[in-house]
Amino acid sequence: MRRGSKKLLVLALVFGIPLAVLGVWLALILIDEPPPDDSDLRIQRADIPEADNGYTHFIEADKNLKWPRWVEPPADAPDKATWDSTQGRERVQWMLKGKGWDAELADKVLKDNEEAFGLIRRGLECRQCQAPFRRFAEESSEIGLFSLGDLGLLRTLTSQHRGKHSEALASAMEEIEIGQRIQGAGGGLIVYTLGGYLKRSGLETLRTMVADTTIGAPSLKKHAGLLGAYVDRGENLARALRVEYEVAVTVVEDCKAGTLLTGPVPVDAGKQRRQTPPSVFMRENATKRLFAETFRALVANAPRYYTDVQPPPPPYGGKFGVVQVVFSRNPTGLWLYAVLTGQAEAAVLTGQAAAKGKPYYNCVDSRCANNAELGMTRLLLAMRAYRIEKGRLPETLNELVPEYLDVVPVDEFDGKPLRYNPAKRVVYSVGMDLKDEGGSTRADWLEARRREAQASGTDFDEDMVEFDMWDNLPDPGFAVPFE
């Protein structure tokens, strides 16, 4: 063979083989699989007129909320300099925390929001409550529903300060009912979380009331029983997860079509346009299958106790770092999956799938925590009724059954009944570490932080510290506020 022919052969091998491999790789990417059967992950939505949809009225109530722009600090303000620089809405927030109650301001806010209360009542009268479906990054007004909780709490506290404990009890129960309806409205995890916030706000109010309430034992027993209907047994969470799956599917379809996030979307530094990822390197149906497998596992976890939760199986055995993504048959789809399931950072740093990603994988923790707080609140109401009628506290929670409760509420972290430490007078859950260490409260945590501050010679202000009982306490619980 002549030298020129050999050179041509070498060039053909050097360039031809990689091009052939690239061609085969591109062909494999372009060959997609059949669409996955995801009928079990789809939500059936009813066609509800706005006038008959409670969710619509709750949103309208939030839009009509009126907060004071500026008010003078009360004479008994703990720090007048701080109050002088506090806007009216922030001032109300301080009042809700028990700082410097101002009866005149509370009355004004409640009077100014009579229209909002009317819309809330109209929403509660509706038999159906359904949130609209929103695509990824679509503008949403749901986050403002937090404010409905503040308004409800202000009304409850106002009744409490006036000694109208029955009205306060009814107001707190109404806030819990609103939260329950929003949780089940099928609006995704954001809406589910907002509903949980409203429920927990109402429950917290009930717990503060049991210390000195004038409500009789029969009413306390009745409401301890009624609260049992607000346990989320997984149906609401499963519905929210199915909505999240539908949102993920629309992201995949928009990415493939080149229309993902092409409009202005709010970001921290204002508004900017974002580019659509290159869709040529994504197998649409294969990507949908990845999401379907993950969300199917998450939905199966929704009703389980925390100790029984099974992590969704990650793709490729959990190994999908940069190299695996680039050389997979579905690089854009796999990366999109990692981003939306909260695993992108773990994949980049370690090449391993995260054991728990946000927001999807932590939602069972939240459901168990909400139910545990609900159960402990029921226990405190029942114990207060027991104390009124028996003249003493029970030595065990079993003494409350069946006269005050049908059963001792379950701790959904380990599936066993919630605990009671009579020596410390604390009802508690084992929490996420699943270890029973006798119960602890926020007061215990604050005392430990004070001792640490004293030892280090630093100042400590409990109003300036972030506290979450499920993150900060080994055995999260509530003190029994009566003897």
Secondary-structure element pattern, one letter each: HHHHHHHHHHHEEHHHHHEEEEHHE
Structural class: mainly alpha
Strand content: under 5%
The shape, in one word, is globular
Number of strands: 7
The largest pleated sheet is described as:
3 strands, antiparallel
How would you write the strand order of the largest sheet?
A: 5-6-7
User: pLDDT average, as an integer?
Assistant: 81
Kindly provide the radius of gyration, computed on alpha-carbon positions and rounded to a whole number of angstroms. Answer: 28 Å
Which stretches are low in confidence, meaning pLDDT under 50 for 5 or more residues running? 262-275, 344-359
Written account of the structure:
It is a single chain. With 483 residues, the chain is mainly alpha-helical. It has a domain at 238-263 and 273-302 and 312-355. It has 18 helices and seven strands. It has helices at residues 3-30, 54-63, 80-84, 88-96, 103-112, 114-125, 146-161, 165-183, 188-209, 217-226, 235-257, 284-301, 322-327, 331-340, 344-350, 363-390, 442-456, 469-472; strands spanning 264-267, 270-273, 410-411, 416-417, 419-421, 426-428, 477-479. It has a three-stranded antiparallel β-sheet, with helices on one face. A two-stranded antiparallel ribbon has the order 1-2. It has a two-stranded antiparallel sheet with strand order 3-4. It starts with a helix and ends with a strand.
